[in-house]
């Protein structure tokens, strides 16, 4: 169940950081369209890399709430942005057509869901 939360951002960085929190080694994180992008350093300070995470590969809008669901993603009808380098804040449309505030901490994604 590898989701291309296509941001090796979380994929590579989360695997490397003991706490599994990519924000500890990544910076300049931003959200555009459906992708989170970040610049990261490998643990030990070695060379940097850019990583991208495609939210359509792992998240679903279920009744106006974001859920991590790589087996059946459906990241539709949400307007989102990044806060604190790792919180994806969104307003997702519920079944009645009302935008509901919802967020997900990308630093808490299960490691197996962050690999490309």
From TrEMBL:
The keyword Signal applies. It comes from the Eukaryota. Residues 21-109 form the Cyanovirin-N domain. Pfam families: CVNH. Residues 1-19 form the signal peptide. The keyword Cell membrane does not apply. Keywords: Signal. This is Cyanovirin-N domain-containing protein.
């Amino acid at each position: 169940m590898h989701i291309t939360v296509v941001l090796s951002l979380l994929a590579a960085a989360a695997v490397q950081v003991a706490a599994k929190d990519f924000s500890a080694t990544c910076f300049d994180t931003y959200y555009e369209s459906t992708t989170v992008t970040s610049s990261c350093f490998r643990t030990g300070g070695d060379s940097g890399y850019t990583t991208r995470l495609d939210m359509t590969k792992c998240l679903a809008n279920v009744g106006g709430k974001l859920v991590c669901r790589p087996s059946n993603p459906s990241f539709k009808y949400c307007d989102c942005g990044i806060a604190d380098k790792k919180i994806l804040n969104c307003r997702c449309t519920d079944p009645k057509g009302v935008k509901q505030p919802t967020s997900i901490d990308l630093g808490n994604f299960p490691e197996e869901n962050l690999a490309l």
